[in-house]
Design brief:
By secondary structure, this protein is of the alpha+beta class. It has one helix at about 30-50; strands at about 10, 15-20, 55-60, 65-70. A four-stranded mixed beta sheet has the order 1-2-3-4, with helices on one face. The chain is globular and about 35 Å long. The two termini are about 20 Å apart. The mean pLDDT is about 95.
Length: about 70
């Protein structure tokens, strides 16, 4: 059972891109990747199961650092 909400997802070149926005107070993007990487992998799995499309990218955006990291 998976419960959650994908902040942003769109299709690019026939594959899904997932973007998750975070407001955590952090010092570096690696902290977010460690903390939320598994969550985004599960979102990718759920999106594939519901849409039949593969996920090409899973991205975390940090409002704190105004930066992104792919997981």
């Amino acid at each position: 059972l998976l419960q959650g909400a994908v902040d942003c997802a769109f299709v690019e070149d026939g594959k899904i891109v997932i973007v998750d926005y975070k407001t955590d107070k952090i010092k570096n993007m690696g902290e977010l990747a460690e903390r939320y990487g598994e969550q985004l992998r599960l979102y990718g799995f759920a999106m594939r199961e519901t849409t039949g499309l593969e996920t090409s990218r899973r991205v975390i955006y940090s409002f704190e650092l105004n930066d992104v990291i792919e997981v």
